[in-house]
Amino acid sequence: MEVIMENKHVELARDIGKFAFELVNQLPEKVQSDYRSYVRSLPAMIINNGLGNALAFEFSKGKEGNAHEILLKHIVLFANRYLGFSSSNLTSKALMEELLRMDIHKYMFWTEQILLFLNWLRRFADGMIKEVKGD
What is the pTM assigned to this prediction? Predict the structure, then answer.
């Protein structure tokens, strides 16, 4: 039974990695450098300020098609696909509303899972996006 659970965990981690790879691979070139920078700094912001506060920052900075908006949209897609976030409207605003409503145990679980997802995104962004002077 333990081997089956371990295999499912490995399979899930690989699936999340594949999902992250596809998202980074599809980034428009004009936002890649900023995205790489933001995905590298967001985990520390989450640890220092909390998930809700960090995502509220991304939400406040997100403008149509910029790297903040795209990163937050990637988190929305992840939450929908892997964390059971379902809303009739899969928007950043709906995700923020969900975070504000959830109990502390769910909030802590989401924090852990989103940090793991961001680690995948960061690794792929570091490997796939050319470093620009100043990064």
Answer: 0.89
